[in-house]
C-alpha cells in the first residue's frame, strides 16, 4: 500500500531524527513501529541549565493533514518539567505548536524549540493560571486559545 504524502513526510522526519537527533533528544523507534501518527520522544535537560540531567517524555500526535497541520505535542509521564510555559497536565504554551506553525517546521525543529525553551528558563515554576487551566482545558492543547505574552523566560 502506498504511503500518503503525510506518511512519507513523517517517515522522512523519523529517519532524520534517528540518524541525527538534536543533543539530548531521542525518538523511541520501538513505539513508533508501523504507527507513524504517534511518537514518543525522550528529552534530557541540557548541561548547565536548571533541567540538567532530568529526563522527560514528549508525545507527538500527527493528523493526516501534517505538515500543514501542526502536531499535538505534550509532555507525558511522571516527570513533567516545572516551567512557566508547561502546565502540570503536560500542555506546552509554545507559539510554533499552534499559531506560528509552518509546514517548513519539523519534529526536529519543535524538539529544538522545546530544548531552547527549557534551557532559557531562569526559575522553575508553573504558569500562574495552572490550576484553573488544568481543571477547565480541553484534552487536546491545540484546541486552547493560547495567549502568547511572555518572552522573558
UniProtKB/TrEMBL annotation:
Top-level taxonomic group: Eukaryota
Q: Which GO terms describe its molecular function?
A: ubiquitin conjugating enzyme activity
Sorted UniProt keywords: Transferase, Ubl conjugation pathway
Q: Which SUPFAM superfamilies match?
A: UBC-like
According to the entry, every stretch annotated as the UBC core domain falls at 5-153
Q: Does the keyword Transcription regulation apply?
A: no
Q: Which reaction does it catalyse?
A: S-ubiquitinyl-[E1 ubiquitin-activating enzyme]-L-cysteine + [acceptor protein]-N-terminal-amino acid = [E1 ubiquitin-activating enzyme]-L-cysteine + N-terminal-ubiquitinyl-[acceptor protein]; S-ubiquitinyl-[E1 ubiquitin-activating enzyme]-L-cysteine + [E2 ubiquitin-conjugating enzyme]-L-cysteine = [E1 ubiquitin-activating enzyme]-L-cysteine + S-ubiquitinyl-[E2 ubiquitin-conjugating enzyme]-L-cysteine
UniProt xrefs under InterPro entries? Ub_conjugating_enzyme, UBC, UBQ-conjugating_enzyme/RWD
Instruction: List, in alphabetical order, the GO biological process terms annotated in this UniProt record.
Output: protein ubiquitination
Keyword Iron listed? The answer is: no
Tell me the leader sequence span: none
This enzyme's EC code(s)? 2.3.2.23, 2.3.2.25
Q: Name one Pfam family in it.
A: UQ_con
> What's the protein called, per UniProt?
N-terminal E2 ubiquitin-conjugating enzyme
- Which source organism? Fopius arisanus
Amino acid at each position: 500500500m502506498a504511503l500518503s504524502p503525510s506518511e512519507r513526510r513523517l517517515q522522512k522526519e523519523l529517519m532524520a531524527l534517528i540518524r541525527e537527533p538534536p543533543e539530548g533528544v531521542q525518538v523511541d523507534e520501538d513505539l513508533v513501529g508501523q504507527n507513524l501518527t504517534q511518537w514518543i520522544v525522550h528529552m534530557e535537560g541540557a548541561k548547565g541549565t536548571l533541567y540538567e540531567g532530568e529526563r522527560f517524555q514528549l508525545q507527538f500526535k500527527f493528523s493526516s493533514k501534517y505538515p500543514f497541520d501542526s502536531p499535538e505535542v505534550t509532555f507525558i509521564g511522571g516527570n513533567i518539567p516545572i516551567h512557566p510555559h508547561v502546565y502540570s497536565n503536560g500542555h506546552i504554551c509554545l507559539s510554533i505548536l499552534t499559531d506560528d506553525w509552518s509546514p517548513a517546521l519539523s519534529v526536529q525543529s519543535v524538539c529544538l524549540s522545546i530544548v531552547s525553551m527549557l534551557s532559557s528558563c531562569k526559575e522553575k515554576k508553573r504558569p500562574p493560571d495552572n490550576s484553573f487551566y488544568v481543571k477547565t482545558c480541553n484534552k487536546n492543547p491545540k484546541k486552547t486559545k493560547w495567549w502568547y505574552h511572555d518572552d522573558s523566560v
